[in-house]
Design goal:
The complex is a heterodimer of chains A (about 220) and B (about 110). Chain A is mainly alpha-helical and about 220 residues long. Chain A has one domain. Helices cover about 75% and strands about 0% of the residues of chain A. Chain A has helices at about 15-40, 45-60, 65-95, 105-130, 145-165, 175-190, 195-220. In chain A, helix 4 runs antiparallel to helix 5 and helix 6 (about 175-190) packs antiparallel against helix 7 (about 195-220). Chain A is elongated. Chain B is of the alpha+beta class and about 110 residues long. Chain B has helices at about 1-15, 25, 30-40, 45-55, 55-70, 90-110, and strands at about 45, 75-80, 85-90. In chain B, a hairpin with a 2-residue loop joins strand 2 (about 75-80) and strand 3. The chains are: A mainly alpha (about 220), B alpha+beta (about 110). The interface between A and B is medium-sized, with 33 and 36 residues. Chain A: Keywords: Membrane, Transmembrane, Transmembrane helix.
Chain lengths: ~220, ~110
């Protein structure tokens, strides 16, 4: 006799307890990872990074050569990275939140490509465009070597801003807003008169980090 | 009738089938999410918690109230810039309940291993 409908099921198959336990543990882990990244954006770390950036801008402005100027900003980039990493780990540890898994990993991977583009462009400018021993005078950079050097602050701000904006999609709304602010300052820096680079870097890496860091402290904890 | 009752019972208890003595307060998925988020993030505002768990205002309020009544949750209400600000934090009892729940889940997995 042909069947025109599937046979009735007498009962639903029960979920295996161990599979359900695995599912619950996974849910807890994922929730914790999401919350960890959500709150582990370091506010005080941002303020500290901003402070060192303002100091770096002042020091860089005093340098006699292009090579020394670049060295100051490279050192500042390293110091800023270490402060950000330390502050993130500290905040995450305080709240027992995982950082290097789940959303935290996505945040880092979102930021990394844009930062690497900035490093590559800087190396290209340093290697092929500039004479490292040439005199660094932010007020009157020689016309021949001025173009690439003049563009670097804008490029750094744009690349960092693009990375923060992209990575910020996995975090609180303030973070992508901060990335956008960096990009805006970077775009203006590209069009600004030669010799304003250090001022824009102080405004961007200094001012924006301090302002948004303070906002994060206030709204999402230190 | 009997079939329907069995099905509903299985769905209601969810993963609890075969797992006795689970804390009914924390076993509910939304409340488990709230407790997990607070365990990871510490004191969290109503707005942040709602965004993390993708809940509505009403849903979060109802489940937070149940956790508060069970003594697992501490609620602090204040004003920030004249706006009401609600913050949740896990109590010691809440942390202990989550730890106990995790132990039970691990015990279930251990018991299933050959």
């Amino acid at each position: 006799m042909p069947q025109d409908r599937p046979p009735l099921r007498r009962s639903q198959p029960a979920a295996r307890p161990e599979a359900a336990a695995h599912a619950h543990l996974r849910f807890i882990r994922e929730t914790m990872a999401r919350t960890g990244t959500f709150t582990a954006v370091p506010g005080w770390g941002g303020v500290a990074m901003g402070g060192t950036a303002v100091a770096a801008a002042w020091i860089a402005h005093q340098q006699p050569t292009v090579s020394a100027w670049l060295a100051v900003w490279a050192a500042e980039a390293l110091i800023g990275f270490l402060i950000g990493l330390w502050a993130t780990l500290l905040k995450a540890r305080r709240s027992s939140a995982p950082v290097l898994s789940g959303q935290g990993r996505k945040f880092f991977l979102g930021l990394l490509p844009a930062v690497l583009v900035g490093v590559a462009l800087t190396l290209a400018v340093y290697g092929f465009e500039l004479d490292p021993t040439s005199k660094y005078d932010p007020r009157s950079i020689p016309v021949v070597s001025s173009l690439s050097l003049h563009l670097l602050p804008g490029i750094w701000l744009l690349c960092y801003g693009a990375g923060v904006a992209a990575a910020g999609t996995f975090s609180v709304r303030l973070v992508p807003m901060m990335g956008t602010a960096f990009m805006l300052i970077g775009a203006i820096a590209l069009l600004a008169p030669s010799g304003w680079g250090d001022a824009f870097l102080a405004l961007g890496f200094g001012g924006i980090h301090v302002v948004f860091g303070a906002l994060i402290v206030r709204k999402h904890g230190g | 009738m009997a079939i329907r009752r069995t099905t509903r019972s299985t769905a209601a208890s969810g993963v609890a089938s075969g797992v006795p003595d689970l804390d009914p307060v924390i076993h509910q998925r939304v409340r488990l999410g709230i407790v997990s988020a607070l365990a990871a993030g510490g004191a969290t505002s109503f707005t942040d918690l709602k965004a993390v768990l993708e809940l509505t205002d009403g849903n979060l309020s109802v489940h937070a109230r149940k956790l508060e009544e069970a003594g697992y949750l501490r609620v602090t209400k204040s004003f920030v810039d004249r706006m009401p600000h609600t913050e949740f934090d896990l109590t010691d009892a809440g942390r202990a309940a989550l730890a106990s729940y995790l132990d039970q889940m691990e015990a279930v997995i251990q018991a299933a291993r050959p």
